[in-house]
Amino acid sequence: MSEPLPEACAVCPAHNVANLVKLGVDMDDWDYVVALAGNPNTGKSTVFNALTGLRQHTGNWPGKTVARAEGGFSIGEDRFKLVDLPGTYSLLSSSYDEEIARDFIVFGQPDVTVIVVDASRLERNLNLALQVLEITDRAVVCLNLMDEAKRHGLDVDHRRLARDLGVPVVPCSARYGQGLEELNQAISDVASGRTVCRPRRVGGRSKLLERAVGALAEEISSRYPSLPNAQWVALRLLDGDERLAAAVRSDELALLQAPEQDGARPPTAGASDGENVADPASILTLASTQRWMVGADFHQALVETVYTEAARLADRAVSRDGEKARFDFESTLDRLVTSRVFGFPLMLAMLTAVFWLTIAGANVPSAMLADLLIESGHPMLKGFATAVGLPWWLDGLLIDGMYLATAWVISVMLPPMAIFFPLFTLLEDFGYLPRVAFNLDRLFSRSGAHGKQALTMAMGFGCNAAGIIAARIIESPRERLIAIITNNFALCNGRWPTQILIASIFVGSLAPPYLAGLVSALAVVSIAVLGIFLTFLVSWLLSRTVLRGEVSTFTLELPPYRPPRVLRTLYTSLMDRTLFVLWRAVVFALPAGAVIWLISNIEIGNQSLAARLVDGLDPLGALIGLSGVILLAYIVAIPANEIVVPTILMLTVMVTRLSGVGEGISEGAGVMFELDSMEATGELFRSAGWTLLMGVNLMLFSLVHNPCSTTIYTIWKETRSAKWTGVASLLPVAMGMVLCFLVAQVWRLFTG
Amino acid sequence: MTQPLTALFIFAIVSVVAVLLFRPQKGWIVRLVAALRVTERVQVEDSLKHLYDCESHRTTCTLQSLSGALGRSGDRTAQLVDRLQQLGLSEPTESGFGLTAAGRREALRVIRSHRLWERYLAEETGVEASEWHRQADQREHTLSADETESLALRMGQPRYDPHGDPIPTASGEIVLPTGKALTEIAAGEASEIVHIEDEPEAIFSQLMVEGLYPGMRVRMIENTPRIVRFEAAAEEHALAPVLAGNVTVAPLAEDTQVADMHAHLSSLSPGDEATVAGLSPRCRGQERRRLLDLGVVPGTRIVAEMRSPSGDPTAYRIRGAVIALRSEQADLVDIESLGAEEGP
User: Fold this and answer.
1) Average pLDDT across chain B, whole number
2) Local structure of residue A397 (DSSP, 8 states)
């Protein structure tokens, strides 16, 4: 850059790179920053993806711990960075999501803020739009969901709305790709300064209030002459907004001023020409004295004025000639899915169908994957290693340990998740899942939880890590923590195979052969039901003990039904959920495989480390009706429940030194395997001294033990709290130990 | 291997001990910590609060009343009174003893911390109303002056605590409470609750169960020495005079329409329609801001759409969106003009 372009910058709006970098936005490759704001359920993510061309994948949960989604696109020569803000109803209150969104618009000063607005619910959405326009004057309103408005018989006059709001208004249906070109054009025009916005500022305040705001804004303007939104800052200070008070105190607001033509004015007060320039302290003092004048209902009055204005503007812009009370189909459907008679059966049928499709559909691909990766892949790799001449320990560590563990996790985990998550996401996309939460909320509220926990639980039956991420949909902090901590009690897909195997071997064999299948199925189902019961019990206990006093607010929006987009859903759910969770699992399975191989092959004295550990754990195992082998397997297989059974088998063979089992692959210690038939596995367990009690306790412990390390890591990512991660990990282990102990002792008491 | 019976027996003992130790509120550990907390500072501050109480109720504070308030023996209370006088916080009066100027300042400082903390609990946490007073009673002794001020700053220098008591300012000024006891109101008179006494706890929690709160409008129906019956929030309440005496009310201005003794949103059945009159003062903090954000502001038209098959929550159409609220939330919304929804 040899030549500065002063002319060009006279028109280009204040572009505040330093502030953006401070907010964590990487600005190296971009000319402009565009922020995307909007209410929840307005298709904000759809607009985001439509603009960026799917370069970013977003779930549609608003969430506080999520990094903002960012993506990029270009219009002509200019490269735009798009930042997706959390969906919020307003910017006035101080929920965490709203703070993130608000702070980005205030302190990041994006070049353009695109406000996504639901055309069919204009009044509610304009409330947020008006608040954004108070802060920034470089905005574009994206009037989304025009198709839905039309279906409802609403006619929205976007030209009138644009005149009223003073910013470009672009009607579109992002879902069908309509109106996006116009949106791009409007963004580019506002960013480059070709379109100058004159946004409407909300009026209609009382005289008293106007006076207070005016006086304060004057002080603020004297300190920060080119601050674009002094009125708004004054309002926030009057409302007791601590974040802005801090920005005044630290003079951070000085950084937000538009650059002056004759070079930036130094922000220090002394530099002005000795006029009456307010210092931060006097601004804050004035604010706090005025606060006493404006009264206690100030906040409410503020919200009221904005809503009144929004209603007025919406009324002018929307003609409701053909309006239907509520889309007939929707009302009927809602009445059906929440009816006393059909509500619950319908829900059960739907969920059963999802689970059945998952279990039935996953069998074949799972077997194929196992065949490919384990049956043929493993020997092939071994052969290759021998051919290359790898030392035995490296070959063992890499192939028998790390490769095999990972292969196992992938083949057991991938197929069911690739079926379950898309199905679930389809229901979510359609809008059915919030109705499930609505139906079940009573049940959850009794134990201090949120109805949406029904969904995170259902998700947990697929994968606990995914269930915990899904808990982002619960905005209330207390209920969200409860959902996260108890998700482990939803029997995840990695544990179903263990349950089925053990139930068939030990429980099913008690019944006559023609009933065996049914009995073992019942045993597995009762374990799952016990899990649900424990979820409620632990939720109840948590909300009455450690989580007492955490803030709790219940809101549940029932969004309009929308036709699900099957392909999109398949794509995003595969990307966001399936692959994401799988990736994490693989990352954790690799070292676990190494550890399993190492403890089996490192010898101390004349015994392997594993054998010694098993010996050490045996007394504890016996006390709680398990065994040292099982406990050790649960310790080393903490990364994934999928490899627990193979590890148990491997350790059992190693410890008991049975010959003739697992021929072909069990030459080396530390090689996990599974036997071809259930009978053979049962045979092996029995000859190793397993009893019915051990089988039952293994099923119990498989339900009630620490979450796998993927899940623990996810809990940490989501809560950012060592305390809650600790509680969520240790509480179930302790409960499992106590439960197994009690069962074992009572069992022995009665069977002698 | 251990005998099952022995193992179970040991387990039972361990669990019982664990419960005794860790039980919330009554566990040994909690009690031990509480006992350790009763330092001289705590006693001095509690006595100052009692003296201030006497002063504002214009009663005389004696050794007996103080030892009763602190739950300590007479001897030790006498020592404490000596200590207070040494510190220059208290001085003898004709019939008992009272506060010096320094003592009053100190008492107001403690009261400020107490009420600010109650306010904090009410606005920014989910701690139940019956817990506010007890927790503030502990925190008032541990909050430093700086912490108190930054708390006040963060909450925007609030003026009243959640029971309706004025919070003294940092410089020690306090608005004197006005109003009279609910038992002094004649039948037919309308007034507004301005204060609910939070001590003793038993009475306070009964008043909470009754659903009374500062800012609630009441109209007296019958006031006898046996029972106090009044109407509030479109419901009739009956209290024993001993309970009603702990409720302070202020008369409403002559022209106030007591007709806006509103029904609650929760009384709507699916299909009914109403207009929001306002949010109850009991609706605080995050909950209040969230409801306002959703558009539950005075004048908003709300239609009850459907009820969950399990009976709760109920979904309402609010400014275009269908939003489910639990009945205890809908209780916090006052409504006007009931009626069935008219066809479009």
Assistant:
1) 83
2) I
pTM of the shown model: 0.80
Chain A residues whose beta carbon lies within 8 Å of the beta carbon of residue B5? 749
Number of Cβ pairs closer than 8 Å across A and B? Answer: 174
The 3-class secondary structure across A720-749, one letter per residue, is CCHHHHHHHHHHHHHHHHHHHHHHHHHHHH
Q: Is residue A326 over pLDDT 80?
A: no
Closest to B112 (Cα-Cα) out of B174, B193, B30:
B174
Q: How far apart are CA B281 and CA A658, in angstroms?
A: 74
The rounded distance, in Å, linking the Cα atoms of B187 and B228 is: 9
Q: Is B23 on the interface with A (CB under 8 A)?
A: no
State yes or no: pLDDT of B21 exceeds 90. no
CA atoms within 13 A on the CB side of A653: 26
Q: Is residue A139 helix, strand or coil?
A: strand
Kindly state the percentage of chain B with pLDDT values over 70: 94
Q: How far is A306 from chain B (nearest CA, A)?
A: 10
pLDDT value at residue A270: 43
Chain A positions touching B323 (Cβ under 8 A) are 555-558
Please identify which residue in the block is written with the tokens 């387990």: B11
Evaluate whether A449 touches A482 at the Cβ level (below 8 Å): yes
Of A288, A441, A556, the CB nearest to B323: A556
Residue among A366, A373, A375 at smallest CA distance from A665:
A375
As a whole number of angstroms, the distance between CA B106 and CA B47 comes to: 11
Nearest CA to A496 among A530, A535, A464, A528? A528
Looking at residue A130, its amino acid is L
**Of the partner residues B5, B125, B290, the one whose CB lies closest to the CB of residue A549:** B125
Pairing state between β A32-38 and A78-84: parallel
Q: Do B11 and A745 touch (CB under 8 A)?
A: yes
Query: Is A743's pLDDT higher than 90?
Result: yes
Strands, E, within chain B: which ranges? 90-92, 97-99, 180-181, 190-196, 217-223, 228-232, 235-239, 247-251, 263-264, 272-279, 301-307, 314-318, 321-325, 333-340
Which residues make Cβ contacts (< 8 Å) with residue B334, sequence separation at least 6?
B233, B260, B262, B263, B264, B265, B276, B277, B278, B279, B280
Per-residue pLDDT at A143: 93
Contact A300 B325 (CB under 8 A): no
With beta carbons less than 8 A apart as the criterion, state whether A57 and A8 touch: no
Q: What is the pLDDT of residues A10-19, one digit of tens each?
A: 334 445 666 6
Tokens describing residue B4: 């099952």
Given a contact cutoff of 8 angstroms between Cβ atoms, the answer to whether A248 and A217 are in contact is no
Average pLDDT value over all residues in chain A:
82
Asked whether the beta carbons of residue A124 and residue B127 sit closer than 8 angstroms, the reply is no
Which pLDDT belongs to residue A3?
40
Q: Of the segments A93-97, A205-209, A450-454, A561-565, which one has the largest average pLDDT value?
A: A450-454
Q: What pLDDT score does A712 carry?
A: 93
**Whether B233 contacts B211, CB under 8 Å:** yes
pLDDT in tens, A210-266: 888 888 888 888 888 878 788 888 888 888 787 888 888 888 877 777 654 444 444
Q: Give the span between the Cα atoms of B312 and B329, in whole angstroms.
A: 11
* CB-based contact A157:A150 (threshold 8 Å): no
CA atoms within 13 A on the CB side of A92: 31
CA pair distance A465, A658, nearest whole angstrom: 37
Pick from A45-59, A90-104, B20-34, B315-329 the range whose average pLDDT is largest: B315-329
For A631-643, letters b (16+ CB in 10 Å) and e give: bbbbebbbbbbbb
Per-residue pLDDT at B55 exceeds 70:
yes
Which residues in chain B are closer than 8 Å to A478, comparing Cβ atoms?
Answer: 126
* B24 interface with A at CB cutoff 8 Å: yes
Question: CA torsion sign, A271 to A274 to A277 to A279?
Answer: positive
